[in-house]
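fyi for ur records
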Amino acid sequence: MKTLEEKITDTQKIRKRTLVSFGFFFLFIAACIFGWKWLQHQPKEEGALKPLRTVLDANESIFSGLISDKHLAKTFPLSAAAPIVRKNGDAGMSDGFDIAAWKLQVIRNPGDTFYITLDEIKALPKTDIIFDFKCIEGWSQVTHWAGVKFSDFVKKYGLDEQSKMKYIGMHTPDNQYYVGIDSKSILHPQTILCYEMNGKPLPLNQGAPLRLIIPVKYGVKHLKRIGTIYFSNQRPPDYWYEKGYDYFGGL
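which gave:
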């Protein structure tokens, strides 16, 4: 059995360790408060506080190098596809849209624009994909889409030189929603210009008549109701990037 002196010593050790632990805890809280206040006083850069933007850009430089034809999103059997597909936002889906008058505008070069109908797009080889659509809001859903591979679209319309540029830009007919996407991702074999969902024409709230499905990206990059496509070596404007999110948007 421990002597009284040993018991007193043990009690003192416990008290000392407790005080040290509380000391480190309060120092940690103080450092967090100081760091938060410091961060809030930093300037903004393209929608995000500068330190955060630096981290996001660093992440992009790392993960963009991982995109390749071998980096495929997991696919699922048709039986796994959700019968009711969740909608991820409605920016760019303004009222009064005339689907019958729609044509896809493609800007090959400044001053060189052509237009494509949905029937012309449907004449290209059709590709189905069933994958886990992921949203930045924190939800995901296995969904079934079909359309034309973007890489096939590029070949059909002689856009090979344009596709060698670093980025492509897309925006809705009302210009209220827009994305910029790196060329590696847009030319990925799973990226499609989509006109069907669950074996039926796209509904209006899912981007009819044509939307982007790009499984290697989060839902914010899957632009609905595509109005215009163009190519650039400079980053095109991006709706959520301007609000402080990362530009790459990759999975």
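The longest strand covers residues 140-149. thats all i got for now
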